[in-house]
Write a structure and sequence with these properties.
Pathway: Cofactor biosynthesis; adenosylcobalamin biosynthesis; adenosylcobalamin from cob(II)yrinate a,c-diamide: step 6/7; Cofactor biosynthesis; adenosylcobalamin biosynthesis; adenosylcobalamin from cob(II)yrinate a,c-diamide: step 5/7. There is one protein chain. This protein is an alpha/beta fold and 190 residues long. The chain is built from 8 helices and 7 strands, in the order βαβαβαβααβαββαα. It has one domain: P-loop containing nucleotide triphosphate hydrolases (Rossmann fold, 3-Layer(aba) Sandwich). The protein has a 7-stranded mixed sheet with strand order 3-2-4-5-1-6-7, sandwiched between helices. Helix 3 runs parallel beside helix 5 and helix 4 crosses helix 6.
Length: 190
């Protein structure tokens, strides 16, 4: 059996989720959609976004809501005898759900995620991640923490994923085909 980790990243409304869904469909494997959002019945606009994502999914796909327990869901979804394609949408929402964690706890959560991916023996995992930090540095600490945490996770996943796609302006660019992986930062080596 073969494992495959794919990262699809890009700005808001660029088409990254649709691209990831197409890749999952093309995998030929049963798809498990790992939704990281939290439902909020008081936020009708958020519910509309979730509904649009649901309507695009294949009827045969299984959906699991995992706003926090992402690593456990990945491990569970990749241990069956019938390898699946797990589509994680999205890492930005997952990071936002865990912003209250202090730095040591957050580091442990990320390490657990990375170790679980290194240990995968089979299946495909497709991550959808928002790109942040292409603009102004957030003026408030929580915004900076979100940007830094998400940027770190995306970089670390980008180092082990193949391929890595950047989706922008409705176009998917295979960064693995035209780019080079940067060496880990000092903090990633520790």
């Amino acid at each position: 059996m073969v494992k495959r980790i794919i990262l699809v990243t890009g700005p808001a409304r660029s088409g990254k989720s649709e691209w990831a869904e197409l890749l999952a469909q093309q995998s030929g494997k049963p798809v498990i959609y790992l939704a990281t959002s939290r439902l909020d019945p008081d936020d009708s606009e958020w519910q509309e976004r979730i509904d649009r994502h649901r309507q695009r999914r294949q009827a045969s796909w299984r959906t699991q809501e995992v706003p926090v327990a992402l690593t456990a869901a990945l491990l569970q979804g990749t241990t069956s005898d019938n390898p699946s394609c797990l589509l994680v949408d999205s890492l930005g929402t997952w990071v936002a759900n865990l912003l209250a964690e202090d730095d040591p706890s957050w580091s442990a959560i990320v390490e657990e995620l990375m170790e679980s991916l290194k240990g995968l023996k089979q299946g495909t995992v497709i991550f959808v991640a928002e790109e942040t930090g292409w603009g102004v540095i957030p003026a408030y600490p929580m915004g900076r923490s979100f940007r830094d945490r998400l940027g770190d996770v995306v970089r670390r996943l980008g180092a082990i994923a193949d391929p890595v796609y950047l989706v922008t302006g409705g176009h998917a660019v295979n960064l693995s085909a035209i780019g080079s992986v940067l060496p880990p930062t000092k903090t990633q080596e520790d």
